[in-house]
Amino acid sequence: MHIRPNRLRSAAVLGLVIAMVLVAFLVTPPRVRADHDAIPWANPNAIATSGLNEQGSTVLTDGKGHVYFFYSVSNGFQFSNISMTEYTTYGPFGFPMFVMTRQVTSDPTSARTNNPSYPPAAAIDHNGYLYVAWVKQAAYTGGRSDDLYVSRSTDGGNTWVPTLASAPNGVGADVWPSIAASSTGRIWIAYAQAWSGWNNITVAYSDTAGSSFGGYTNITVPAGRFYQVTTPTVATDASGRAYVAYSQQAITAYYLVYLAWSNTGVVWTTQRISTFLQTFAYYPSVAPDASGKVHIAWWDNRFASYGGTSIYYRQSPDGGATWLPEVLLSSDRGLATNGRVSARLLGQNLVVLYQSFLGGALQLGQAISPDDGSLWYPGTTKPFERQSYDFGAAMDENGTVWLGLTQAPFGNNDVMMSWWNGPPSPPTITNIARATGQLTVSWSTPPEADVVAYQVWRSMDGSTYQVVASTSAPTTSWTDTGLANGTYWYRVTALDNFGTSSHGSGAVSGTVGPTTAELVAALEAQITDLENQLATAQADITAIQAQLDTLQTDLNNLQSSTNANYAELQSRLDKLQSRLDQIETEKATQTQSYLNTILIIVVIVLLVFMLMQSRRMTSMRTQMIPRSLRQRPPQQSPPMGAPTEPPGPGQPRSDLPDDDL
Q1: Looking at the structure, do residues 405 and 444 belong to the same domain, yes or no?
Q2: Of 371, 394, 422, which residue is a domain's last?
Q3: Beta-carbon count within 10 A of 317 CB
Q4: How many domains does the chain have?
Q5: What is the rounded distance in angstroms from the CA atom of residue 633 to the CA atom of residue 629?
Q6: Domain residues for 435?
Q7: Is 60 helix (H, G, I), strand (E, B) or coil?
Q8: What are the 10-residue block averages of pLDDT along the chain, 661 residues in total?
Q9: Pair (435, 506) in one structural domain
C-alpha cells in the first residue's frame, strides 16, 4: 500500500499540532479570572538539557515579546561557560516559543559561574543591546585573581564581544557582579572587590555602550576598615539615578542592608535600610519605579533563635530621602532560606521571589503587592513537582514574571523556566464628565501591553458595585446615560488576554444635577457677592460720611464766618440805622426849615400879591373917576375894611378898570 507524500505531510503537521497543544496544556497555567495569590505558576519546563550541569540562571526581558535566560554550563569542574536561550513570550498557542541558544563566553575554562557567589547578571539598554556581566578566573598574580567582564551583543544575542570591566589597578577577586542600563544610555556595574582581610563595593560605568568602563568608586568601606561587604545589586530609575543595595558587616560582626545612590557616579549618598542590628541580612534586591519610589527586599535571619528566617521589605516614597517602616513578607517563620531575592515590578504590581523550604525540599516563595508596596498578600510557598532553587526572575511588558530555576530531574542540574501571568495593574479613573442625565467615565491605560478589555462598575451607595459596561481596548471612556439626579460611584477593572482581571481602580463619584458642593458653592458665592456688595456699600457709606464730615466742617467754618460777617453786618446796619436816624432827624429838621422858609416865602408872596392887588385896586379906582373929577382934591379914603356903598343899578362900578367897564 502506498501513502502519498502530501498525506504524510498532512499527518505530520496534524501530529505536530496535537503535540504542541498537549505541551501547552502541560506547561501553560490555566486561564482564570482570579486574584493575585490564586494565580498558579506554569509547570517548569527545561530550557536546555546539555547533559552537563546547568545552573545560576539570570532572566532578562526586552519589553518587545522576548525573554532571555542566561546560565552557566559546567564541564564538571569549577569552570564553565555562559549560555543564553531566547524565547518569545507568547507563541501561537499561548505559551513561549523557542528562538535560539547561544554561547556568550567561548573559553570553556573562562567563566567561573558554578559558584553561587558568581552568578551572571544581565541588562538591556534603550538601543536593544544586551549586556552580561560575569567573572573570569585569572592567574593569581600581584594579589589579583578573578576579573569582571561584560559581554555585549548588538544583534539580539546572536553574537557577543567581551570587555574587561574590572578596575585596572584593582587587587583581589572581583565577584558578585550586577549590571543595569539607565534611560540615558549609561551602563552601570557594581561588584564586590575582595582580598585578604576585607572587601568593598566598587561601582563603575560606561558611556560607550559597554566598550570601556571608568569612574571606578569605592562606595562602602573606607581605607583601613576591615569589614566585609557582599551581594550588591544595581538598578536605575527613570531619571538615570543609580541605586546600589548591598550587605555590609557591622562592628558587631552582624550584616546589615545598605543602599547607596548617585546621579553622577562621583558623589554617593548612603542609608542603612535594615533596622534590626543583631541579624544577618543578605541578598538585597532594589527596584526603583516610575513614580520615584524605591523598593528593597532582603533575606534576614533575625528570627533564627526562633528556628526560622524571613524576607523583609522596605519602601522609600521619595527616591531614598525618607523610608517607611519595614514589612515582614514571609508569613511563616522558618520557610525563607538563604538565597537570592528578586524584587520585580510593573505598574502597581510588585512581586518579591525568594528561596523557601517546604516539606524537606527547596521551593519558590513569593510575596505579592497589587498596589505598589502599600498592601501585601501574605508570603506563601509555591511548591513545584521537584525541589527547585537558585531563582532568577524578570517581569515583561505584560506583567508576566519569568522565572529561571534549577532542578535535577535526570541527575545533573538543569535550568528550567516557569512563568506567572500576573493580573494587570488597575486603571486610574482620570475624570467623570457631567451632563444632563449622564456621566462619562474616563480612565488611564495600565502599563501592561496585554490588556484587551475593561469593565466599568457602578454603585448607588459607594459600597455595592455591579458591572454596567464592558469596553474593548484601546477605548478608555464610557458614558452612563439615563441617570436620575443623584450621586454615583464608579470603578474600572482591566482584563488581559488570559481573562485575568486587575483589582478595581480607586472609586470616584460623579453627580447628576447640582451637587451638594455646588449648592454650597453657589450659596457661598451668593454670600461672597452680598459681602462684596456690603463692602462696596460700606465703602460708599464711608465715602459719604467723609463727604458729610467735610460738609459739616465747611458748614461750621461757614457758620463761624457767617456769624462773624453777621456781627460785622449788624454793626454796619446799626451804624447805618443810626446814620439813617440821624439823617431822618436832620431831614426832618431841614424839611421843617424848608417848610418854614417856604411858608415865609408864601407869606411874603401873599403879602406881595396882596400889596400888588391893593395897588392894582387903587389904580382901578383912579381910572373909574371921571376925568373931570380927577382934579378934585383927593378925598379921604375910608378906613381899610370899611364897607363901601355898592353902586346903584345902572351905575358903573368905580372899582373896575376902564377896560372892564
Answers
A1: no
A2: 422
A3: 16
A4: 2
A5: 9
A6: 429-516
A7: strand
A8: 37 42 37 61 81 85 94 72 91 84 75 60 95 80 73 95 82 86 94 75 94 92 64 93 91 85 93 88 92 93 68 94 92 68 87 85 87 86 83 91 86 87 91 96 93 96 95 96 95 91 92 86 91 89 89 85 79 80 77 77 78 78 65 54 53 50 40
A9: yes
